[in-house]
Amino acid sequence: MTDIITSSDAAAKLIDGKAAAAAVDAAAADGARQIEAALGRPPCLAVVLVGDDPASQVYVRNKGRRTEAAGMRSVEHRLPADVSQADVVALVQALNADDGVDGILVQLPLPAGLDETEVVQTIRPDKDVDGLTAQSAGALVLGAPGMRPCTPSGSVFLAKQALGDLTGKSVVVIGRSILVGKPAALLFLAENCTVTLAHSRTQDLPAVCRQADIVIAAVGRPNLVKGDWIKPGACVIDVGINRVEGEAGKSRLVGDVDFDQAIETAGFITPVPGGVGPMTIAMLLANTVAAAARRAKVSVPDSVKDVLPG
Ligand SMILES: Nc1nc(=O)c2c([nH]1)NC[C@@H]1CN(c3ccc(C(=O)N[C@@H](CCC(=O)O)C(=O)O)cc3)C=[N+]21
């Protein structure tokens, strides 16, 4: 297996999200084999894609490919952008009722005019592999068992790869979204970190950032976090995936952190691409194995338990 932590020419070591995702994919594949041995069928993930957004199509294709590479079944449901709210809800209800489906992911955002909240809340909590239902969010707040959101889980995994036990670390999460920032704050709290949840109204964000042992940047603003916001030696997890104009009219992906600056100060840093992005899909696969196990009332395979946060 390739190293997850590698050195760079600058101060910081790189956290290789692709290598980490390969390790988590392998754990999910091992778990999937155990589920198949117990149930006579592999875990199954259903993905719902509404409309024809090209970026969403790429993500969904990637998810399907990785799901099958891990020995699981992937089913894709495509609906036209002008589908009615009732038809989307009806599809989710049919997937809820289908005993052969273990996990349901509705690709977000939904086209304008559809009620995203209602669609997501229709998902049965025991199939909510995205960890976005009220039940999953409540379980996270309570510290009760439940499905944790994939991107925050991936961020915790990468921070642990860099630092080991996170107990007592000071974490600054920038961004309070439902999908990433808010659940990330709660997951790092569950790791016994001291968590600050910063956002667009935070006063003196650079100073707040500077006291962090771990910075989680999840705002969706290219290169917002500057090198001199980073405490020397800190661990920087860049959740941002921003498509910007590159050279020769080509678009390229950049994170929320000014990587070239931050790598000079940080102790560890995730690149974009090749950082948190691949981990999101890896955690989706791990959640799908866990969902299949819990639904079948067999124990979650140790390989998968080991990669998921508490
Ligand atoms: N219900 C739902 N759950 C999601 O988890 C969800 C979603 N909707 N909608 C869209 C966002 C975005 N997302 C990404 C997953 C992987 C990469 C990823 O692997 N990115 C590669 C690069 C891919 C590229 O080149 O475009 C990387 O960062 O290295 C990126 C983004 C999941 N999302």
Report on this model:
This protein has 310 residues and is of the alpha/beta class. Among the domains are: 84 residues, Leucine Dehydrogenase, chain A, domain 1 (Rossmann fold, 3-Layer(aba) Sandwich), CATH 3.40.50; 129 residues, NAD(P)-binding Rossmann-like Domain (Rossmann fold). The protein is 41% helix and 17% strand. It has a seven-stranded mixed β-sheet. A three-stranded parallel β-sheet has the order 4-3-5, with helices on both faces. The mean pLDDT is 97. It binds 5,10-Methenyltetrahydrofolate (GUE). The site of 5,10-Methenyltetrahydrofolate (GUE) has 17 residues, from helix 2, strand 5 and helix 10. 5,10-Methenyltetrahydrofolate binds next to helix 2, strand 5 and helix 10.
Largest sheet, described in full? Answer: 7 strands, mixed
* Small-molecule components bound: 5,10-Methenyltetrahydrofolate
Measured distance between first and last alpha carbons: 25 Å
Number of DSSP helices? 11
In CATH, the homologous superfamily of the domain at 149-277 goes by the name NAD(P)-binding Rossmann-like Domain
* Topology, number of strands: 12
Characterize the overall form.
Answer: globular
CATH topology of the domain at 149-277: Rossmann fold
CATH class of the domain at 149-277: Alpha Beta
**What fraction, in percent, of the residue positions are helical?**
40-55%
